[in-house]
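ok trying this again, last paste got cut off
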Amino acid sequence: MAENKTRPTRKSVAKFIAGIEPTRRREDAETLLAMMKRATGMEPVMWGDSIVGFGRYHYKYDSGREGEFFLTGFSPRKAAMTVYVMPGFKQYAAELKRLGKQRHSVSCLYLTKLDGLDLTALETIIADSVRRMKDMYEWWEK
Protein backbone atom coordinates (compact mmCIF):
# COMPACT_ATOMS: atom_id res chain seq x y z
CA MET A 1 0.00 0.00 0.00
CA ALA A 2 1.35 3.43 -0.93
CA GLU A 3 2.31 5.79 1.87
CA ASN A 4 1.38 9.47 2.02
CA LYS A 5 3.84 11.67 0.17
CA THR A 6 3.18 14.50 2.63
CA ARG A 7 4.84 13.54 5.89
CA PRO A 8 6.24 15.39 8.90
CA THR A 9 9.88 16.43 8.69
CA ARG A 10 12.49 17.82 11.05
CA LYS A 11 12.85 21.01 8.99
CA SER A 12 12.64 24.31 10.83
CA VAL A 13 9.30 26.09 10.64
CA ALA A 14 11.02 29.37 11.57
CA LYS A 15 13.52 29.06 8.69
CA PHE A 16 10.75 28.16 6.27
CA ILE A 17 8.64 31.18 7.28
CA ALA A 18 11.67 33.50 7.17
CA GLY A 19 12.38 32.46 3.58
CA ILE A 20 8.91 33.16 2.18
CA GLU A 21 8.74 35.77 -0.57
CA PRO A 22 7.28 38.24 -1.22
CA THR A 23 7.25 40.09 2.11
CA ARG A 24 3.44 40.37 2.19
CA ARG A 25 3.06 36.58 1.92
CA ARG A 26 5.66 36.10 4.69
CA GLU A 27 3.80 38.54 6.97
CA ASP A 28 0.53 36.69 6.31
CA ALA A 29 2.29 33.40 7.12
CA GLU A 30 3.57 34.86 10.40
CA THR A 31 0.02 35.97 11.26
CA LEU A 32 -1.39 32.51 10.46
CA LEU A 33 1.37 30.81 12.42
CA ALA A 34 0.55 32.80 15.56
CA MET A 35 -3.20 32.33 15.04
CA MET A 36 -2.92 28.57 14.59
CA LYS A 37 -0.67 28.19 17.62
CA ARG A 38 -3.28 30.06 19.65
CA ALA A 39 -6.28 28.23 18.16
CA THR A 40 -4.78 24.73 18.48
CA GLY A 41 -2.56 25.07 21.55
CA MET A 42 0.01 23.07 19.56
CA GLU A 43 3.46 23.69 18.13
CA PRO A 44 3.91 23.67 14.34
CA VAL A 45 5.74 20.99 12.37
CA MET A 46 6.82 21.09 8.73
CA TRP A 47 5.03 18.54 6.56
CA GLY A 48 6.99 18.08 3.36
CA ASP A 49 8.75 21.15 2.01
CA SER A 50 5.97 23.73 2.17
CA ILE A 51 3.18 22.90 4.64
CA VAL A 52 3.11 23.99 8.27
CA GLY A 53 0.95 21.49 10.17
CA PHE A 54 -0.44 21.27 13.68
CA GLY A 55 -1.12 17.98 15.44
CA ARG A 56 -1.69 14.62 13.78
CA TYR A 57 -4.52 12.21 13.39
CA HIS A 58 -4.76 8.60 12.30
CA TYR A 59 -7.33 7.70 9.65
CA LYS A 60 -8.48 4.37 8.25
CA TYR A 61 -10.77 4.07 5.24
CA ASP A 62 -13.21 1.23 4.57
CA SER A 63 -10.85 0.17 1.76
CA GLY A 64 -8.19 -0.61 4.39
CA ARG A 65 -5.98 2.34 3.46
CA GLU A 66 -4.76 4.13 6.55
CA GLY A 67 -2.27 6.79 7.49
CA GLU A 68 -1.55 9.98 9.38
CA PHE A 69 -2.11 13.60 8.51
CA PHE A 70 -2.10 16.96 10.29
CA LEU A 71 -5.23 18.26 12.09
CA THR A 72 -4.88 21.69 10.47
CA GLY A 73 -2.20 23.68 8.74
CA PHE A 74 -1.34 26.14 6.02
CA SER A 75 0.88 26.58 3.02
CA PRO A 76 1.93 29.94 1.55
CA ARG A 77 1.45 29.04 -2.12
CA LYS A 78 2.26 31.51 -4.88
CA ALA A 79 -1.34 32.12 -5.98
CA ALA A 80 -2.95 32.06 -2.52
CA MET A 81 -2.41 31.12 1.08
CA THR A 82 -3.92 27.66 1.53
CA VAL A 83 -5.45 26.89 4.93
CA TYR A 84 -6.33 23.24 5.54
CA VAL A 85 -9.67 22.70 7.29
CA MET A 86 -9.86 18.92 7.39
CA PRO A 87 -13.56 18.36 8.24
CA GLY A 88 -14.63 20.60 5.35
CA PHE A 89 -16.78 23.73 5.24
CA LYS A 90 -20.46 22.67 5.32
CA GLN A 91 -20.82 23.73 8.96
CA TYR A 92 -19.03 27.07 8.46
CA ALA A 93 -21.35 28.98 6.12
CA ALA A 94 -21.86 31.87 8.58
CA GLU A 95 -18.15 32.12 9.39
CA LEU A 96 -17.18 32.04 5.70
CA LYS A 97 -19.62 34.87 5.00
CA ARG A 98 -18.11 36.92 7.85
CA LEU A 99 -14.57 36.03 6.77
CA GLY A 100 -14.83 37.89 3.50
CA LYS A 101 -13.22 37.32 0.12
CA GLN A 102 -12.06 33.73 -0.20
CA ARG A 103 -12.71 30.55 -2.09
CA HIS A 104 -12.61 26.96 -0.92
CA SER A 105 -12.67 23.37 -2.06
CA VAL A 106 -13.49 20.28 0.01
CA SER A 107 -10.97 21.01 2.78
CA CYS A 108 -8.79 23.84 1.46
CA LEU A 109 -9.45 27.52 2.04
CA TYR A 110 -7.70 29.84 -0.43
CA LEU A 111 -6.88 33.37 0.72
CA THR A 112 -5.07 35.77 -1.59
CA LYS A 113 -4.29 38.10 1.33
CA LEU A 114 -5.32 38.46 4.96
CA ASP A 115 -5.88 42.23 4.78
CA GLY A 116 -9.58 43.01 4.90
CA LEU A 117 -10.59 39.59 6.21
CA ASP A 118 -12.35 38.95 9.51
CA LEU A 119 -9.52 37.06 11.22
CA THR A 120 -11.73 36.27 14.21
CA ALA A 121 -13.99 34.27 11.87
CA LEU A 122 -10.93 32.47 10.49
CA GLU A 123 -9.65 31.63 13.96
CA THR A 124 -13.12 30.34 14.91
CA ILE A 125 -13.12 28.02 11.87
CA ILE A 126 -9.63 26.72 12.69
CA ALA A 127 -10.31 26.11 16.39
CA ASP A 128 -13.65 24.42 15.74
CA SER A 129 -12.28 22.26 12.91
CA VAL A 130 -9.50 20.95 15.20
CA ARG A 131 -12.06 20.20 17.92
CA ARG A 132 -14.15 18.25 15.39
CA MET A 133 -11.13 16.30 14.17
CA LYS A 134 -10.16 15.40 17.73
CA ASP A 135 -13.70 14.12 18.31
CA MET A 136 -13.62 11.98 15.15
CA TYR A 137 -10.11 10.51 15.16
CA GLU A 138 -7.31 9.22 17.31
CA TRP A 139 -4.90 12.15 17.45
CA TRP A 140 -1.71 13.40 19.08
CA GLU A 141 0.37 16.55 19.09
CA LYS A 142 3.78 15.59 17.67
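PB: full thing came through this time. The chain has one domain: 13-137.
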